[in-house]
Specification:
About 40% of the residues lie in helices and about 15% in strands. With about 375 residues, the protein is α/β, with parallel strands linked by helices. The protein has a 6-stranded mixed beta sheet with strand order 8-7-6-9-10-11, sandwiched between helices. The chain has a 3-stranded antiparallel beta sheet with strand order 3-5-4. The longest helix is centred in the middle third of the chain and has 19 residues, at about 140-155.
């Protein structure tokens, strides 16, 4: 178990407190709990609480005692404090940090921003995640780009559900352990283990850089740049009236310089758009990079000035090749929006997921399609 010494010490104290209250917790349960702490999001107090409750095998009738002691030992609150809902601090609130103060582990949160009146407000970061890209001020841009980088880094740590043999720590594989023991006359010298594989996804991003997408392009491409840092098999294309591969034209961490270079190098940047012709060109020239392990993400408002029948044929060809096709449309940030444009009507029958792309929260939802 690769658990920080401070966390391990705190876990031992917590287990002792549970035993003092009559809850049976053995050494094996403590080991399981330590393992659980390596698998959950330590910035999510509710997830830590739920993970420890399961790993320590706390019976239902003792949940109230467990929750009370958890607040004392892991949150630093008094015994008689009002219970805190298990999901008080959402996973995406990345300003939070666990800190060891020598006595207990405390979850420190950034000071929330309060609007007019006495009602509690969201933190500045949470508000920024929900702020539409086309409403960001100049002072918001740098903070948003930092959040986009952190969002992409979350993807790098994701593990698949598939278990594969490992020589390191992992789940004990009893079947293979006993099978190995047969070769040593029943002596179990080593436990076989399995762990979740780190699977590298293949992703193709196709970004609309026409004039109608100008308010969103910087942040969509910033997200693409951040993804390039963590996804090895990533291809990025820009399209408007023509298709341009930009994978090698961008430098992760140098968003402003890369965007300046792209606006100069990509033909007809901020001009018109012919989505059908561009997607048809992608299928003809680059279709071989799309396979059954590939997620194709198209970011466009669907305002096509070209041949919509050609768009439908190109989408059908992509659908036959790709694992998943995702279409993100920033216009969906307006609740009144309906995909009635001819381009969108031609594309949607071949799309697996159709969603918004107007703020950071909408881009976060994309991550589940990329692992």
């Amino acid at each position: 178990m690769n658990v920080a010494p401070g966390l391990a010490a705190q876990l031992a104290k917590f287990a002792g407190a549970l035993r003092e209250q009559g809850i049976r917790v053995g050494l094996g349960d403590e080991i399981d709990a330590a393992t659980a702490l390596t698998l959950v999001d330590l910035l999510d107090r509710g997830e830590v609480q739920c993970g420890l409750r399961i790993a320590l095998k706390v019976p239902r009738e003792a949940w109230a005692t467990f929750d009370r002691l958890f607040r004392v030992h892991w949150s630093g609150t008094a015994v008689d404090d009002v219970p805190v809902p298990p999901r008080t601090y959402p996973r995406d609130q990345r300003g939070a940090q666990w800190r060891w103060d020598g006595a207990r582990v405390r979850l420190e949160l950034p000071e929330p921003e309060r609007p007019e009146g006495d009602e509690p407000g969201y933190s500045p970061e949470a508000m920024l995640r929900r702020k539409p890209f086309d409403q960001l001020s100049a002072s918001d841009v740098a903070a948003m780009e930092r959040l986009l980088v952190r969002l992409a880094l979350r993807l790098a740590a994701r593990r698949s559900r598939r278990l594969v043999p490992t020589r390191g720590r992992g789940v004990v594989d009893l079947r293979h352990s006993f099978r190995s023991a047969l070769r040593t006359e029943g002596e179990l010298f080593r436990l076989a283990r399995r762990a979740r594989a780190l699977e590298v996804p293949r992703v193709v991003l196709l970004y609309d850089t026409s004039g109608s997408m100008d308010p969103y392009s910087r942040f969509h491409l910033a997200f693409a740049f951040a993804l390039r840092r963590v996804i090895r098999r990533l291809e990025i294309f820009a399209f408007n009236t023509a298709l341009t591969r930009v994978t090698r034209a961008i430098a992760p961490g140098k968003i402003s310089q890369s965007l300046e270079r792209l606006t100069a190098d990509v033909p007809d940047w901020s001009g018109g758009t012919r989505i059908g012709e561009c997607l048809a060109a992608f299928v003809a020239d680059w279709g071989t990079i799309v396979g059954r392990d590939t997620t194709v993400v198209i970011v466009s408002d669907g305002l096509d000035l070209g041949d919509t029948e050609l768009l439908g044929r190109a989408m059908r060809a992509l659908r036959e090749r790709a694992r998943t096709i995702v279409w993100l449309n920033p216009l969906m940030g307006d609740p009144r929006y309906e995909p009635t444009q001819a381009g969108m009507r031609a594309a949607l029958p071949h799309v697996d997921h159709f969603g918004p792309a107007h703020d950071l929260e909408s881009l976060e939802r994309l991550l589940r399609f990329l692992d």
